[in-house]
Amino acid sequence: MMKQAFIFSQTYLVPMQLVLAMLGMGATLSVRDFVDVFKNPSGLALGLALQLVLVPMIAAGFVWALDMEPGWAVGLVLIAAVPGGTVSNLFTHLARGNTPLSISVTLASTTLAMVSIPFMLNFFAAQFLPGGITVPTGKLVQDLIFYLLLPLILGMVVYRWNADKAVVFSKRMIQGSLGLVVIIAIAALGSGRMKIGEYGWGPPLTILAFCMTLALVTPHICRLVGRFDHDVAALNIEVTFRNTAIGLLLVQFFFPDQPEQGHVLYTCLFYAGIALFVALPTILLHRAGKSPVLGRKAKPPVKGSPGIHAEGVTAPEGAS
């Protein structure tokens, strides 16, 4: 019964959750927010550099330092190779971070994933792979259009039509999205698809350490290059949440009918389960007006910075 619930949630509830989240966030944004991001593209460039360079290099460091077995090595590199997950946009919004920047990085990195995923796998895990990895391009494009772009644009139309009603609309959409996140999590936990201690405690601790390394290193790099905290929060959440749905689509191509395929699957599922808990301190700290950079005072943006409206705050809060 729970396995059927899990299949139902992945097939129908996950897309529905994404649509509601993007509708809700779109209803707090205007075209100007995205124009600001592209007028000052350094944030977008930094986000892509983190996704395409830093994350896979950290994964490769783990693989090398721990001399990981093939299945676990490919699983970790796969997690690093996939783009940031679209759920990161929702939690950036809830953290009161730079939502337009988060969405822009997600769109750009997901578009590039058609090229970047095969490249990273072949560059960082070639010795473990048989070759011929195929990225489901059609599926990526379909998901981008129907679950991200279209609902985002529709939400922005609502904001343009009536900003006051958009506040209520956004709040209801975000609440619905969060409710579905809870249901999806319960279905996943109850499905029995993954047993945490199935392979001992080495693999889950390694995956947890990798996730925590991303969450700890990213904000300090962002601050080092002068980013404000609303950018730091957005990029840290973007990096910590990986698009494990793409990873799960690709698992079938690795070690078919071999035990190592289970290692790749376990890595994707376990990472998906812990990402929120690892990112939670950043979400709560920035939402409370504190810096996500450890040991540093908050560095709020000045008025007119990308993602910040003239009155000095991000567009209407939909989940307060």
Descriptive report:
- The protein is mainly α and 320 residues long.
- The chain has one domain (2-287): Na+/H+ antiporter like fold.
- The chain has helices spanning 2-26, 31-39, 42-66, 70-81, 87-94, 99-124, 137-161, 163-190, 202-224, 229-240, 244-250, 259-287.
- The longest helix has 29 residues, at 259-287.
- Mean pLDDT is 82; it is low at 304-320.
Which descriptors would you attach to this protein?
single chain, 320 residues, mainly alpha, Na+/H+ antiporter like fold, 12 helices, 72% helix, globular
Q: Report the order of strands and helices.
A: HHHHHHHHHHHH
Largest sheet: none
Task: Round the Cα radius of gyration to an integer and report it.
Answer: 19 Å
Class from helix and strand fractions: mainly alpha
Task: Report how far the terminal alpha carbons are from each other.
Answer: 35 Å
- β-strand amount: under 5%
Number of helices: 12
Topology, number of strands: 0
Q: Estimate the mean pLDDT confidence.
A: 82
Task: Please name the CATH topology.
Answer: Na+/H+ antiporter like fold
Give the CATH class.
Answer: Mainly Alpha
Low-confidence stretches: 304-320
CATH architecture identity: Up-down Bundle
Helix content: over 70%
The shape is globular
Total domain units: 1
Oligomer: single chain
What's the gist of this structure?
This protein has helices at residues 2-26, 31-39, 42-66, 70-81, 87-94, 99-124, 137-161, 163-190, 202-224, 229-240, 244-250, 259-287. It is mainly α.
